[in-house]
Amino acid sequence: MREQIQLLDVVALTEDVPERQLRRGQVGTVVEVLAPEVYEVEFVDNEGRTYALLPLRAEQLLVLHYQPAEAF
């Protein structure tokens, strides 16, 4: 079962999006929930400048975690 994506989650692309020059593994932040399983994701550079903002489907995203997972 896929984890539910939430507003402000940090996510990584699971596939290339060549029309936007984005590659698998690039990291962005969910900034809006557009529809069930569709999210607006913002990608920023190291200077904080947005270089891409686009809607993506849940299956194109992997939620990243920075803390250990709790016991299942």
Task: Please specify the SSE layout and strand pairing.
Blueprint: E1 10-13, E2 27-35, E3 38-44, E4 50-57, E5 61-63
Antiparallel strand pairs: 1-2, 1-5, 2-3, 3-4
Instruction: Point out poorly predicted stretches.
Output: none
Count of helical segments?
A: 0
Cα distance, first to last residue? 13 Å
Strand arrangement, largest sheet? 4-3-2-1-5
Largest sheet: 5 strands, antiparallel
Rg: 12 Å
H/E series: EEEEE
The total strand number stands at 5
Helix content: under 10%
Average pLDDT figure:
93
Instruction: Specify the structural class.
Output: mainly beta
The proportion of residues in beta strands is 35-45%
The global form is globular
Overall description:
The chain contains no helices and five strands. A hairpin with a 5-residue loop joins strand 3 and strand 4. It is mostly beta strands and 72 residues long. The chain has a five-stranded antiparallel sheet, with no helix packed on it. The chain is globular.
Primary descriptors:
5-stranded antiparallel sheet, 5 strands, 72 residues, mainly beta
What can be said about this structure in brief?
With 72 residues, the protein is mainly β.
